[in-house]
Design goal:
This protein has 245 residues and is mainly alpha-helical. The chain is built from nine helices and two strands; from the N terminus they run αααααααββαα. One of its GO terms (molecular function) is structural constituent of myelin sheath.
Length: 245
């Protein structure tokens, strides 16, 4: 076999669908975990500096942020391993696998493994859909904060009206109702919006939200790929013909 034929043989056995999903998953999880972790740290700093004077007012939020950061570590590790396994399962059902290991036959174990991947990926997609919706909440909070600051900038000539424009962290469940001051109003809020911490945190949450969306797209692509691979295994069991997805 010539070099060209060998290269075409290798390229023909690549599971492009699974490979695309793996790249999407890696990039999405990297964005979500990396930006989300740093955004939580910056959020704690903003709440501590501008919305709460007493440590006891935001100690619960600090514990929650620490807990979510540990969850992020676990998510990054789990998805890295799971994506590698799904990619390997994609290669398993390609024509390259048949040509490497000889006449391929689908076994009951192989079909059960593929059906298990379909079920797990479907459950992960449903759970991650909730994570995707949840990641929109901090973006909504910072969007409202930024919009209120823009309104304050427009109404700078009427100070009385400006002081009535506030963002109350207690209304979003970030602080208990007895927290003082718990909110930022008027020019104080405008000052918060002009800080580097606010802009960085806002951008990080947007990036984390985008990462969650990319990961959801990757899981949906995996669902298509694993479902197709299961059908391939059954087909190979009858015909002994390789294909790819």
């Amino acid at each position: 076999i010539g070099c060209y034929d060998c290269c075409m043989k290798c390229l023909g056995g690549v599971p492009y669908c699974s490979l695309l999903a793996t790249l999407l998953c890696f990039s999405g999880i990297a964005l979500f975990c990396g930006c989300g972790h740093q955004a939580l740290t910056e959020t704690e700093r903003l709440i501590e500096t501008y919305f709460a004077r007493n440590l006891q007012d935001y100690i619960t939020l600090a514990y929650l942020i620490q807990y979510f950061q540990y969850v992020i570590y676990g998510l990054a590790s789990f998805f890295f391993l799971y994506c590698i396994i799904l990619l390997a399962e994609g290669f398993y059902t390609t024509s390259a696998a048949k040509q490497t290991f000889g006449e391929f036959r689908s076994t009951l174990c192989g079909r059960c493994l593929s059906s298990t991947f379909i079920l797990i990926t479907y459950l992960l997609a449903v759970v991650w859909l909730l994570v995707f919706a949840f990641s929109a909440l901090p973006v909504y909070f910072f969007y409202n904060m930024d919009a209120t600051c823009h309104t304050i900038t427009v109404l700078t000539e009427t100070p009385a009206s400006i002081n009535q424009l506030c963002i109350d962290a207690r209304q979003y469940g970030l602080l208990p109702w007895n927290a003082m001051p718990g909110k930022a109003c008027g020019m104080t809020l405008s000052t918060v919006c002009k800080t580097r911490e606010f802009r960085v945190t806002y951008d990080l949450y947007i990036a984390a939200f985008a990462g969650a969306g990319i990961t959801l797209l990757a899981l949906l692509t995996y669902m298509v790929s694993t479902t197709y691979n299961f059908a391939v295994l059954r087909y190979l069991g009858r015909k002994g013909i390789g294909t790819r997805c």
